[in-house]
Amino acid sequence: MSDTAAVTMTLHPQPQAGEAKPWAFPAPERGALPNGLTLLRCHRPGRQVIAVEINLAAPLDAEPEGLDGVATIMARALSEGTDKHSAEEFAAELERCGATLDAHADHPGIRVSLEVPASRLAKALGLVAEALRAPAFADGEVDRLVRNRLDEIPHELANPQRRAAKELSKELFPATLRMSRPRQGTEETVSRIDSAAVRAFYEAHVRPSTATAVVVGDLTGIDLDAVLADTLGAWTGDRSEALPVPPVTADDTGRVIIVDRPGAVQTQLLIGRIGPDRHDRVWAAQVLGTYCLGGTLTSRLDKVLREEKGYTYGVRAFGQVLRSTADGKGASMLAISGSVDTPNTGPALDDLWTVLRTLAQGGLTDPERDVAVQNLVGVAPLKFETAASVAATLADQVEQELPDDYQARLYAQLAATGTVEATSAVVAAFPVDRLVTVLVGDAAQIAEPVRALGIGEVTVVAN
Hints:
Elements: E1 29-32, E2 38-43, E3 49-56, H1 70-77, H2 87-96, E4 100-106, E5 109-117, H3 121-133, H4 139-158, H5 160-172, H6 187-190, H7 195-205, E6 211-217, H8 224-230, E7 255-260, E8 266-275, H9 283-294, H10 300-308, E9 315-323, E10 331-341, H11 345-362, H12 366-378, H13 380-383, H14 387-399, H15 406-416, H16 419-429, E11 436-441, H17 443-451, E12 457-461
Parallel strand pairs: 2-6, 7-11, 7-12
Antiparallel strand pairs: 1-2, 3-5, 3-6, 4-5, 8-10, 8-11, 9-10
Helix pairs in contact: 1-4, 1-7, 9-12, 9-15, 9-16, 10-11, 12-15
């Protein structure tokens, strides 16, 4: 056999990362249309799918007594026919534009979301304006939406996460506050809704003078002023101020509520209380500290409950804005959520409380803080690559009465927040004696071990 010739390889140098470019959250241009509608526009070169978010000042607090859910039905009915198109025709016209249209109701108001190729923006915005100006609210379409909503409710109640959220809201907030009840209504209230109720809610609260439109995408070659004048600018209505909303109050006395599900192999846990909204100067530090506690797989809670003990696939801590207002009447939900196997419910809660106590005694570490900053701030440019993500964030800022540069300033604040400040904020957010705990699971197996923990009075309720 002949000797095999040696093979040589030339290795090229490994490419190196270039110098990072400065980045900041996009700044919008603010204006208004003659009909009173507030406008935010943001030119994002290269984003050929344009995103439009429209905030309607129709909060859930405005729903008539006994008609919880009418805002949701109205939002869904906006695209179910107009004075010019039937429901089927409207859907077909949207499809021809290559557009998607969605609408939902939440505590601050109704959000209408549109995504459409830049070349079809004028046509799609015309359809949205038509839906806002002259929705049909046909009896048959509203009745169908009501039936659909009634069909959804049993599925939501069967979902442990949704059931826990419903019980926590009921426990935290006074019965007189709309936040104590399901956002989309109950079987009793939704069954009362008809087209007349939907139209009455629309006529009372939907008008351009209290609405805001956010347009984000590549606007090159688009005469946006002309497009808006022919579409949303043609929408008329009485000028009025947004409705005042009551302050958010809650009772976070430490206690445990078990929603009994005999035979459940897992326990869904949701631990919460209310805290400050985004207008509070502690918000950035609270975001950072909460992320260290339970924002990722490397957080304190996951290290103990998932990695060390194997009780769960994951536990998360988070802060969710309920309503944010410049006058201090807003609030956020501060919560810890996850599921554990039934036999280890007591030990898992015991360890969770130990994590909180240890955090209060020893604080966060600098490496934990650094990882959190990198994950929250370092990936921001990727998070906001699409026009839709930018538009949704700008619309959130409008909805929460925040300045247009809020998100940009928030990232700067997160990067500047120290370990001690983040520790103080997260300890204040989750005090061990002021947490309402909801457990959805088998009460026969978990009630006594939980009582033995001494984290609050234990009450068992039916599923």
